[in-house]
Design goal:
Largest sheet: 7 strands, mixed
Bound molecules: pyridoxal-5'-phosphate
Helix content: 40-55%
Strand content: 5-15%
Order of helices and strands: HHHHHEHHEHEHEHEEHEHHEEHEEH
Distance between the termini: 45 Å
Radius of gyration: 25 Å
Structural class: alpha/beta
Strand order of the largest sheet: 1-7-6-5-4-2-3
Shape: globular
């Protein structure tokens, strides 16, 4: 930040005086604006070693007030080196988390207002904007109007809430009596694929279903849940006296972005009266583009769906959109209203504190509203399709080269591929790919991740950042090729 006057206000007023806030606020926005202009100049992956940042911080909070200039200076000199730049155009390691100018401005306003959206009356606009904005998003991705929305922090929590509602739907009085020590209650079982996100299993852990009772159904050669095996597993569990109650299908799995056969799974769920939750945390946003609407085939038959605007919808982390046909069950699962939180309008309004384990809730709808308005449906479609176009380009280069291969289909903008020069053993190919990943990440110009598919190391490139342009993708392809040459030379 710029050198500015040391402010003497700390001991004289309670909060920062408006004039000081204004001046520093401008400075911070200026800093962010230049940061966004110069993202390429930062190493994507932070280069610090474990403990390095902590070692540069004092062991205790200051006794005396410190000038804001010092705080802002340390932000740049101490904190920034420990930042991995998710905004960097060549950040491909994890999903497509991309904020945006409109989203950042809304976050500033939301924290400025410091609203807690727990009850309707604690800010009617926060509650009503949440309902309306999610209804906009529902329409954009083509879900039927029977779905109503709630915003949570993350997909992990959205999915946990879905599983809690699914359990509530069984009418087993678990909310009151719990599950332990009940001779009348056989184990409840839930189903996902072996490619599902860990948050599904975590929901099972958190809700006392137990890891053993989270069945991971095998996938086909395109990493999609095998629906026949799902039906078999449910039948086997039922025959053993268990209570199958919930299926989680995924549209855009985390490792390969595979799409489970949701229409078939919906049929199985409906036949067996199981709750169907669809985890479209990453993939759901793509459906805003008409060309990609097919990814949501069958999702209209689900009981609940999660889509994360903080993944591929240009909304700063955190913002997870949960859609449910049976919000009444969510409410039944979680409502517990102490006297001091009763309000005269309880019957007439939605009090979002009743829709999850937490009381306090950030005003997250504001940033989604800003983003949807500032980009518009067309703007969002164009950007998403552009990311998919970049992915198609890279896929083509990979397919045209004998040194590289695609390892999974890439229906969205995330690629799973690996170097596969001829004449190497499988183990050597694995180490080669690990070496390529390390070389690229150490170089600071791009950040990739790897995953393991069918026991083999695979590189993963998730394209979905607003700052990514075609030139960055071309550069990354060149980096990959030189990293391959160098690793080959040194092995
Ligand atoms: C990222 C991801 C999640 C978890 O998202 P959080 O919001 O970080 O909890 C869940 N499912 C899928 C498919 C994901 O890609």
């Amino acid at each position: 930040m710029n050198e500015s006057q040391v402010a003497p206000w700390q001991d004289e007023t309670n909060d920062m005086p408006a004039e000081e806030f204004r001046r520093l606020g401008h400075e911070v926005v200026d800093w962010l604006a230049s940061y966004y202009e110069h993202l390429d100049e930062y190493p994507v992956l932070s280069r610090v070693t474990p403990g390095e940042i902590a070692a540069r911080l004092p062991p205790a909070a200051p006794v005396r007030p410190e000038p804001m200039n010092d705080v802002l200076r340390d932000f740049e000199t101490v904190v920034l080196p420990g930042i991995t730049h998710w905004n960097h155009p060549a950040f491909y390691a994890y999903f497509a988390i991309t904020g945006s100018g409109p989203g950042v401005l809304a976050e500033m306003l939301a924290s400025g207002l410091n609203v807690n959206a727990m009850l309707w009356r604690t800010s009617p606009a926060a509650t009503e904007l949440e309902t309306v904005t999610l209804d906009w998003l529902r329409q954009l991705v083509g879900l039927p109007s029977a779905f109503e929305g709630v915003i949570y922090d993350t997909a992990s929590i959205s999915t946990m809430v879905a599983v809690a509602a699914a359990r509530e739907a069984q009418g087993l009085d678990i909310r009151r009596r719990g599950m332990a020590g009940r001779t009348d209650l056989p184990p409840l079982t839930m189903y996902c694929s072996e490619q599902s996100h860990s948050s599904v299993e975590k929901a099972g852990i958190t809700l006392g279903i137990g890891q053993e009772n989270v069945r991971k159904i095998a996938t086909d050669n395109a990493f999609r849940m095998n629906a026949d095996l799902l039906a078999q597993a449910i039948a086997t569990d039922r025959a053993a006296g268990k209570i199958p109650f919930c299926i989680v299908a995924t549209v855009g799995t985390t490792a390969t972005t595979s799409i489970d056969p949701v229409p078939e799974i919906a049929e199985i769920a409906s036949r067996g009266d199981l709750w169907l939750h669809v985890d479209a945390a990453y993939g759901g946003a793509a459906a805003i583009a008409p060309e990609m609407r097919w990814v949501m085939d069958g999702v209209d038959r689900a009981d609940s769906v999660v889509i994360n605007p903080h993944k591929w919808l240009f909304t700063p982390v955190d913002c997870s959109a949960f859609f449910c046909r049976r919000l009444d069950l969510v409410q039944e699962a979680f409502t517990l209203v102490p006297a001091y939180l009763r309000t005269p309008e309880d019957e007439a309004v939605r009090n979002f504190m009743n829709y999850g384990p937490q009381l306090g809730r950030r005003f997250r709808a504001l940033k989604l509203w800003f983003v949807l308005r500032a980009f518009g449906q067309e703007g969002i479609q164009r950007r998403i399709l552009e990311h998919i176009r970049y992915a198609r380009m890279v896929e083509q280069w990979i397919r045209q080269s004998s040194d590289w291969e695609m390892v999974a289909p890439a229906p969205f903008s995330t690629l799973c591929f690996r170097a596969c020069p001829s004449g190497l053993s499988e183990a050597d190919v694995d180490s080669l790919n690990v070496a390529i990943e390390s070389a690229i990440n150490a170089g600071g110009q791009a950040f990739l991740a790897h995953t393991v598919l069918n026991g083999r190391v695979v590189l993963r490139m998730a394209i979905g950042n607003l700052h990514t342009e075609e030139r960055h993708v071309r550069q990354t392809w060149e980096l990959l090729q030189s990293a391959l040459e160098e690793s080959r030379a040194s092995s």
